[in-house]
Amino acid sequence: xxxxxxxxxxxxxxxxxxxxxxxxxxxxxxxxxxxxxxxxxxxxxxxxxxxxxxxxxxxxxxxxxxxxxxxxxxxxxxxxxxxxxxxxxxxxxxxxxxxxxxxxxxxxxxxxxxxxxxxxxxxxxxxxxxxxxxxxxxxxxxxxxxxxxxxxxxxxxxxxxxxxxxxxxxxxxxxxxxxxxxxxxxxxxxxxxxxxxxxxxxxxxxxxxxx
Length: 211
Hints:
Blueprint: H1 2-23, E1 26-42, E2 61-72, E3 77-82, H2 97-106, E4 116-122, E5 134-140, H3 151-210
Antiparallel strand pairs: 1-2, 1-4, 2-3, 4-5
């Protein structure tokens, strides 16, 4: 059964890693080529779009979504949506998507004279599923080789590791004080019952031989 244990913990780690990778902020160094507003058909239950105001909808709804078009240092293109998160999840409390759209429009440039920016965002870009990362902020930088240290992610992951370690230590102590003795008593009871059953069988076998 060891493989089942490893499969469970491996699946749990993959799930936690995917949640962290999606929700923690990342920064891409890009230059902005344009901004636009497009009408999108969105499933109200989708977790990859901001919550719709029409929460009573039972099917896909159409609404306007702001987008920011960018080009990366290697020439690849990347499109970001620009939606408010409000007080929902993830808890970025973003209410200024209109202002961010204006900032992005002011930073539009071309390949001949690029204005490099660090675009902070969360989420994934999956083209065939029409999933876009959500832009959080945009900051001009000196160039595509600027070094960006993810201090926010370092702090969050350090705190998360500390919490998991602290909970794990307390669970091990609780297990040693309460669960292990209970299991040991159960093991002793099982051993006593097993010995009693074996003695009965041995006594019956001796009786049969005596006959």
